[in-house]
Predict the 3D structure of the following.
Amino acid sequence: MDKDKPNEPSTVDDILRKIEEKADAGKYLYRGEPEHYQEKPYYGKVSSNLYRVFLEDEEFDIEAEHFDIEVVQAEMLEAAKLFARRTSVELERLAEIQHYGGKTNLIDFTEDYLVALFMACNTSLSKDGRIIMQKKELIGPYIKDAYEPLNRIIAQKSVFVRHPDGFIQPNEDDVINIPENLKQPMLEHLERAHGISTETIYNDIHGFIRHQSLELETYKTIYKGLAEKQKGDSEDG
């Protein structure tokens, strides 16, 4: 344990215990992030990916311009109708765009802190991650259940938060640090004890594509090795 951070979790069990102490059944939503995003321009905000498009634009002052993200999203949804094969309600269309990696004002949360832990630990292994425990009572009007949930939404026990500001500023007391050195042990615990892994969390063809892009160099190396071996065997024969 870091002597400068006496409350810093030093084991997987420490992290789980810290979350469970606060997780009074049904009162929290959870979000796992692989980094803390404390630097400019994020300052620790939990934001939608559409909000971040404008937040990261150095030529646009999101505070001074009285930015209305719902106006932007409404225009985006009108444009999306040209690409849709069927009509759908607004939330369903937004969920679909979000699922395919598009930009919306939906912020993904989950009702399962174990899923949030996976999200916090699955990438950026050289940086501390964080778990945001968001009290439902503080954002009640903005919580949206997934509409006709897809496989991945079911697996991740997803809940969307559609905040009119485009972001939530979490209470510091409700943010739990995940030290970088505990990310891999946490992933191993989640798979061993709870069956939570990349295959179960990203359980559709888009999950495979994500996995494929990460493992493509490995596939190439294995194939090249086999090809060289077959070539050598042929020459020996």
Q: What stands out?
A: The beta strands are 28-33, 46-47, 107-110, 129-135, 143-145, 158-161, 167-168, 175-178. Residues 204-237 form one domain. The longest helix spans residues 205-236.
